Amino acid sequence: MKTFTMDLAGRTLRVDIGRVAAQANGAAFIQYGDTTVLSTATASDKPRDGIDFFPLSVEFEEKTYAVGKIPGGFNKREGKASENAVLTSRVIDRPMRPLFPKDYRNDVTLNNMVMAVDPQCRPELVAMLGAAISTCISDIPFDGPCAMTQMGMIDGELIVNPSQEQWDKGDLKLTVASTREKVIMIEAGANIIPEAKMIEAIYKCHDVNQTIINFIDEMVKECGKPKHEYTSCAIPEELFAKMKEIVPPAEMEEAVFTDEKQVREENIRQITERLEEAFAENEEWLAVLGEAIYQYEKKTVRKMILKDHKRPDGRQLDQIRPLAAEVDIIPRVHGSSMFTRGQTQICDVVTLAPLSEAQKIDGLDAFVTEKRYMHHYNFPAYSVGETKPSRGPGRREIGHGALAERALLPVLPTPEEFPYAIRAVSETFESNGSTSMASTCASCMSLMAAGVPIKAMVAGISCGLVTGDTDDDFVLLTDIQGLEDFFGDMDFKVTGTKEGITAIQMDIKIHGLTRPIVEGAIARCREARFFIMDNCMSKAIAEPRPQVGEYAPKIIQLSIDPEKIGDVVGQRGKTINEIIARCDVKIDITDEGNVSICGTDATKMDEAKRMIEIITTDFEKDQILTGKVVSIKEFGAFIEFAPGKEGMVHISKIAKERIDRVEDVLTLGDTVKVVCLGKDKMGRISFSIKDVQ
């Protein structure tokens, strides 16, 4: 066993190698502050048969004992990965995947188990570092090291590796991964931060990453295993040469040079049939022909873009595909829109509900227990012309939904300004590149159509990249379609307003980006999102509607004395449940005394408000009230003004003339007006019917 330590942002990072999990290819037992994570890297001995991709699996396991909790529900043990666990796994996967050999087909699993959580040291960061360390010291082929740093910002000051509270409450949530020379991954949520400030934060993370990489180098030098040999799955060069004889490069270029995805796929299908026929007797070549055609097509597209500056659909390098936008396409829902960019089309539907419908979150973060705004993204098979059953959202769907959610969060009104829980659902009707950015545009429009008073319009776009042999040989592509994403080197997504950035997600397939590429992509995305807002979105809907729609629930807010909350709720909820039943409303009350009454009938909502005001207001002399006769006695009648709130009218105060029996004037259930007379000799409140003016 060996222990390594370093100071990282004012806290000690400790890594134990050889202490646990000795049978894994690589294992690191890591503590940052008191946050403890076991990270392991394991690989199979042989490549998986019949696949043309690298089978990497990344897991982030949240153990509730890490925060002193027993899991909720009946099972009382951890089960399905939380949304946070899925998103963390994706953030670890994206920078590390390109650093494994392209021809490596052995199964690899990077497992990160959170065993203790210190709120000052986020477990997600520790797992990211652990995955990199365990892989670097293992015998698994890996072109590392790499490192990751997180950056927060409060009052304009950048904070390296912020605490959980600083992360949740700050204006920036940035994660950056780097190799020695370049940035390899960016993930950000931001409260409308200018591009220059974002670039400053990115490269401050990059600088910190260099100190971590030096630390990893020390561990690899002392504990690293020699990298094992593996069976290469590279395509034989002889096969490529023969393919080019049968299908010359000019023919392949013509096949892929079209703006219709279906036409391109049909062209490639015909080429595939010809090659299968030509190689019918060569089983070895037939087994890898699909991957060979993919690579041939990829090289053709990359050459067209990089050398000839020709895109497959004929667009200019900075040109956005045709745009279309409309709202209110779905009747009766609270808000809807459709955004189309080329062959990418998203329909977004917004639903409004009382704040009590906010999503409850049971995770390792003690500061976030519920989510008021939820964005869900769906990607059915028909959107790409395929057929397969729906099995619920996968990691990709969760990731895309979270990105669009982050994009809109900074412009949402506060619960005090708009007391609703909000759910936006993006349905992918058609997909050919960057549906998450189309989802951002569509959800922005549907929120405005639903009457959500967002602070500014938000749009998103993706920038692609094709690189050559040197760092300064590259081409940036605005609004990449699917083919340019598949065959290109980068998918750089940026969302924001006219004032700044709200979210970034960057995926690459190469070993990093230079600063000119990062700055160029951010600038290109800024220009494109302005174009989308000005020339498309604002023409469909320029600003939020002044009120929610006809079928959306309406909400009345009022404040009461917190000491009166018990009076409104009543014993075992009897009073508030009676109001809810009578008025057909939903009622939420916070500990601070903020009351929200939600319903669809304005008259009934006003009645519920009146009842609550009566319950929480002490009767004053000369106050006139309306109530119902609920009890008759020989000496008078009891009038109910609200559930649990009654007053008594003496028999002498019922009618102007003398009466012998209360029943001669009043009947149970009568609605009457009374005036408060003040307190009687016994300190009780008295009312009169006959003195009402």
From TrEMBL:
Its main location: cytoplasm. It is an enzyme of class 2 (transferase). Mg(2+) binds at D485, D491. Its EC number is 2.7.7.8. It catalyses: RNA(n+1) + phosphate = RNA(n) + a ribonucleoside 5'-diphosphate. One of its GO terms (biological process) is regulation of DNA-templated transcription. GO terms for molecular function: 3'-5'-RNA exonuclease activity; magnesium ion binding; polyribonucleotide nucleotidyltransferase activity; RNA binding; transcription coregulator activity. The keyword Zinc does not apply. It is found in: Cytoplasm. Signal peptide: none annotated. One of its GO terms (cellular component) is cytosol. It comes from the Bacteria. Its cofactor is Mg(2+). Residues 261-288 form a coiled coil. Residues 222-301 form the KIX domain. Pfam families: KH_1 (PF00013), PNPase (PF03726), RNase_PH (PF01138), RNase_PH_C (PF03725), S1 (PF00575). Keywords: Coiled coil, Cytoplasm, Magnesium, Metal-binding, Nucleotidyltransferase, RNA-binding, Transferase. Residues 622-690 form the S1 motif domain. HAMAP family: PNPase. Involved in mRNA degradation. Catalyzes the phosphorolysis of single-stranded polyribonucleotides processively in the 3'- to 5'-direction. PANTHER family: POLYRIBONUCLEOTIDE NUCLEOTIDYLTRANSFERASE, POLYRIBONUCLEOTIDE NUCLEOTIDYLTRANSFERASE 1, MITOCHONDRIAL. Belongs to the polyribonucleotide nucleotidyltransferase family. This is Polyribonucleotide nucleotidyltransferase. It comes from Pseudobutyrivibrio xylanivorans DSM 14809.
